[in-house]
Every structure is written in structure tokens, then in C-alpha cells.
Amino acid sequence: MISLELNFNLFTSDLSHYFKNQVKVGLLGSGVGLSVVLGFSAAYACYYLLSVAKKPILIAGGKKFHQFLRDKCPVVSETYYPTFWCWESRVQTLLRPFVTAKPWVNYRNELIRAPDGGQISLDWFDNDDSASHPDQFTRPTVLLLPGLTGTSRESYILHMVQQSRDLGYRCVVFNNRGVSGEKLLTPRTYCAANTEDLEVVIEHVQRTIDKAPLMAAGVSMGGMMLANYLGRKGSEVHLKGVVVFSAGWDVFEGTASLEKPLDRFLFNSYLTSCLQASVDRHRTILEKKYDIDHVMKAKTIREFDERFTSIMFGYPSNDDYYRDASPIHKIKSVQVPMLCLNAADDVFSPNHAFPVEAVKQNPNVALLITCHGGHIGFLEGLWPRQSTYMDRVFRQFTSAVFENASSLDGLH
């Protein structure tokens, strides 16, 4: 409480000093205008410090993992101060792509073949200038999975690459089929439930750099795919650790949330059009098996999945696909240290669908919940051009896993 009062007093003191020096008091020749502004600002600051800025909730299935995170990742215990002028969920979600900087990253592209004849695009950031890990054969490596229509050029991916570069690590970005400019060689794309391409990528990366420790980070649908992969493979997974951001844990609940009027207008229709544009780019090969004109008439993500995704991957119904795509059912089988960051106000992943009970029963999994942050938002600072709260969680957890791997032994 002392800290809160101190923050509030400093805020109002600085604000008062600013207005006394910068704002002309002239409302009907009195100081009423200044008083109103100061009063509103003080009330807003009080509301922000009491109701918006809060420490995240950390839920872990085992004491050892919980203590590891407390000791090695102090960010999980620190108050998250969302950007004070855009802390609301939808605003954070919409603004992040526009206000955050896009660090320049020079990738090395590699195309690999899948068993069905398709091709997968990987973008490598080798970090050959790494001072802390100069040996390219043993340099720690992070596999990054973007969101639904994302590529290696998304701002959140570029920031994770930048954080990895600063730590001396290598990155490789797994671009889903057909999204990063390469041609589709077979009439197949991707979905959150199917992890075959991810298995191919992980096996290829591990063969290529067999002496280097490997961990993975997934964002939104990339996090869902990664969690589904971990749940299916269990003890067969040889990743050192996994971090997942803004995953949709229950697809039924997430879809229902996005179909509410405002969220349908702001997000659902736009994402549906992005998915349709991706399909249309590859119409020549896809129309050999699917009714693309029917797909292009979909108005929501659910309709798109009913007409395209669930059919492509052979599900009897869209409900069967959504059930299989929901990672909440596979948390209990995860055998790798996995930290999951979600915001309680994420309209893509409603907080009542978070896998709290499943996490409590698995000593390998931890769930970090912030009060605010939206979907892949987590903006902080006055003008959030650079690092976000999500970036700080990524940096600290990645470093903790690679530099303190022995501390994670025996979580079971």
C-alpha cells in the first residue's frame, strides 16, 4: 500500500507541475479549468493504480516449477503496468501491430519437403555474431510459431528474434504452408489440430543442429498447435522448454466470443477475409479438391472452418475439428516444461475457458494470467514502441531454460 500511495503522489505531483507550467488558466478568468483537469487526472490515476495495474496470477502444477519461475523469471511476480492510455483489451489487440516497432531481421530461408509432397518454409536467424555462444553447432536455438495468418515478419516474431539475438541464441521460424509467399505443391494448408508439419519441422531442425539445445515458442494459433503437439507426443518430445502466448484453449468458447456483435465487427470478419485471401492466392491447386467459391462466401471463421478446414483434414463435422483443436484436453499429457501467458480480457480466449484445473494437475505446466493485455497485446510504457510485457516474459523464460536447464530436471 505504501508503494501504491507513493506512485499516486508522484503522479499527481508531476501532473500538477506540468499543468502549472504548460497550461494557461483561462476558463472564465479563473482556475476552474485547471482544477477540473487535475481532478479528472487524479481520479484516473487512482483508478488505474487500483484497478488496472496488477500483479499477474501464476498457477503451476508443481512447487518446483513454480519456484523456478519465481527465482529465474522475476517478471512473473512484477506488477504489469499496461500503457495507461490503451489498456482496454480490444484497443491493445488492435494497436499492437501499428505502434510496436519492427526490428530488421535478415533471415536465411529454407524450403523443406513434407511426406505428402508439400513444402514448408523455414526462416533462420543464425546469429553467427553471437559472443556468448560462438559455436554454431551448440548455439541454443528457439523454434518460433506465428499465429493464424502470421509469418516470420510479424512484429511479435521479430521482437522475439531480437530478444534471442541479444541473448546470443539462434532462431528458426516455422511458416505454415502457403502463408509466406511460397507455392502450395499439394492441395493442403494447415490447422491448429494437425501437427504433422510441426513434427517434420522439429525433426529436421534437430537433425540439422543435433548438438544444440532446442526450445519452442508459439503465439495464438501457433501456441495451440504447439500445445497440441506436446500433448500428443508426451515423453517423446525432446524440447528443453516451451512458452505459449495468447493461446485459444477451447475453440468452441473462443469462436463464440468472437461472434459477439462488436468482436465480430472488429476481428472476426477481418480474420475471415485474411483466411479467404490466402485460399484465393492458391485457388488453382485448391479448387481441384474444394469448392472455393463456397469458401469465399463465408462470413465468419466458423463458416470458413465448416466449408474448408474441417473438410480438408477429414473431420466428420466442424465440432469434431474444434474438439480436436482445443489444447485444453491435452494439457494433462504435456511432459515438457511449458509456461503459458494469457490475458484475462482476451476476447479470442475467454478467461472462463483457461485450463486452470488441468494445469494444477500437471507439474510440467504453468499458467501466467495478467488482468489486461488483450490478444497478443501486453503493451506497456508511455509509448510502447519497443519491448512489451510478453517480450520480457519470453526473454526471461528462454534464458532461464537454456542457462539453468538442470534446475528443471525431475519436474514429474
Automatic annotation (TrEMBL):
One term of GO molecular function: acetylesterase activity
Residue stretches making up the AB hydrolase-1 domain: 140-381
Keywords per UniProt: Hydrolase, Lipid metabolism, Membrane, Phospholipid metabolism, Serine esterase, Signal-anchor, Transmembrane, Transmembrane helix
Subcellular location: Membrane
Catalysed conversion reaction: 1-hexadecanoyl-2-glutaroyl-sn-glycero-3-phosphocholine + H2O = glutarate + 1-hexadecanoyl-sn-glycero-3-phosphocholine + H(+); 1,2-ditetradecanoyl-sn-glycero-3-phosphocholine + H2O = 2-tetradecanoyl-sn-glycero-3-phosphocholine + tetradecanoate + H(+); 1-hexadecanoyl-2-(9-oxononanoyl)-sn-glycero-3-phosphocholine + H2O = 9-oxononanoate + 1-hexadecanoyl-sn-glycero-3-phosphocholine + H(+); 1-O-hexadecyl-2-acetyl-sn-glycero-3-phosphocholine + H2O = 1-O-hexadecyl-sn-glycero-3-phosphocholine + acetate + H(+)
Membrane topology: Single-pass type II membrane protein
The keyword Methyltransferase belongs to this UniProt entry's keyword annotation: no
GO cellular component: membrane
Presence of the UniProt keyword RNA-binding in the record: no
The protein's Enzyme Commission number: 3.1.1.32, 3.1.1.4
Active-site annotation: 220 (charge relay system), 346 (charge relay system), 375 (charge relay system)
Purpose: Phospholipase that may play a role in phospholipids remodeling. May selectively cleave myristate (C14)-containing phosphatidylcholines through its predominant phospholipase 1 activity, cleaving preferentially acyl groups in sn1 position. In parallel, may have a minor phospholipase 2 activity acting on acyl groups in position sn2. In addition to (C14)-containing phosphatidylcholines, may also act on other medium-chain-containing and oxidatively truncated phospholipids.
Homology family: Belongs to the AB hydrolase superfamily. AB hydrolase 4 family.
Protein name: Phospholipase ABHD3
Organism: Sinocyclocheilus grahami
